[in-house]
Amino acid sequence: MVANPTELITSDKNTTVKLVKALLAQARQRKKQGQTVIEGIHLIDAALRSDYPFTQILLAESAHQHSEVQQVLTRLPTYTPILTLSDSLYESIRSLGTGIDIMALINIPTPSLAIINDDCLILNDVQDSGNVGTLLRTAAAVGIKNILCTDATAQAWSPKTLRAGMGAQFALTIYEGLSVQDILDYVQVPLLATSSHTDTIIYQHDLKEPIAWIMGHEGQGVCDELMQCATPIALPQPNGQESLNVAIAGSLCLYETLRQRSYS
User: Fold this and answer.
1) Last residue of some domain: 107, 132, 159?
2) What range(s) does the tRNA/rRNA methyltransferase SpoU type domain occupy (predicted)?
């Protein structure tokens, strides 16, 4: 049953409003509740195209008349609850700037890790949400479905990472909170990790068979335990820069993999 969209919420004491405000601001609450918030038409459209279920839709009173919002509302399953907030209340809780004021409360998926025999991307304590989102978006673009995140990696389903990923999360299977031992136990394809301490240049290495690319912490790189089990791969930097941003490095690796398989 759809909640009456004309029922106007004006108080920040409303239970759903308090929950959404906490989820937008606090990683701890997202982990505790197993929920997150997606903001804006683009992410809601991405979720709809992937048939991802919404727990609840929240929108500002003035947004009801927006043509893109009306189109979204017609595509929702009939049982989706809709909560209308006064414009001032919505503005007080949103994390986006000025735009189309609509957001959705969703459950965070928690798939069970099984043996990985295909391509995957491993995020080993990548801590910046923008980097994580960019890597997820690139993985989705090249057709890699499985993403494995060790426990100190930025939350893949945080509002900031969702925006950086532009909705790529809905096209991926993302395993979070993994230990290094989980990676070693379940990933059955060769591990590759970028390193400046090797002569093996990426363009000279065969990437045609299923592999697992590991991208590491922005400052410390891939942890020793994983690096000892991986083949180190160098990205050439003829001008002598010390290192590349992890999202750039990861994107180069994923696209060289695609090139070797489809465009060589």
Assistant:
1) 107
2) 121-255
